[in-house]
Give the backbone structure.
Amino acid sequence: MDLYISSLVLGAVGLAAMATSGLGHQGHAHSHGHGDGGHGHAGHGNGAHSHAGHALATGARGAKQGGRGGRDSFLWALMSPRILFSLALGFGAAGELVSPIFPGGVVRAVAALAGAVLFERFLVTPLWNFTMRFASQPALTLESAIADEATAVTAFDANGQGIVSVEVDGQIVQVLATLLPTDRSLGVRVRAGQRVRIEDVNASSNRCTVSLI
């Protein structure tokens, strides 16, 4: 088996494996983007300042290293398994197609390389992007509800416990909730229908910790 046939087979098998296993799917940004600062928790003020400082420092480094960053991004893109398999498939296919005209040598290799780039850029990339639109989204879990608002289904008892309902992945879920110790120490009582904020989650036991809004 020559170089071109081997490359064709390798690329075809690799792309097929990625398509069927979903390895080529570039992770969905599926978090809610919850930020403690956005909810106005007083205890997280220092974190907000540190994040702001970090952002400024990162921006300064980015301004100094923009050229190198762009080059690194390009090199990382070339190392993508999907692109490597696409180029291998295109190289092998183009090499076989031009073999009657260029039986061997440097000219055939150059033609195969050009065919590989065109194949990846104008055929595989558009088709791959179109296919990935229909990839299934991962289901959200109860942890994704942290910092979300929930509604008290029952009045909380003297131990600061009750049932709350919260929307998770488009569905209403009811969980056992416990009021924050600081709120309990202040004598806060939660009545049915009141809004609370989810502060922590224990998904294994279907429990959460909440605070009064």
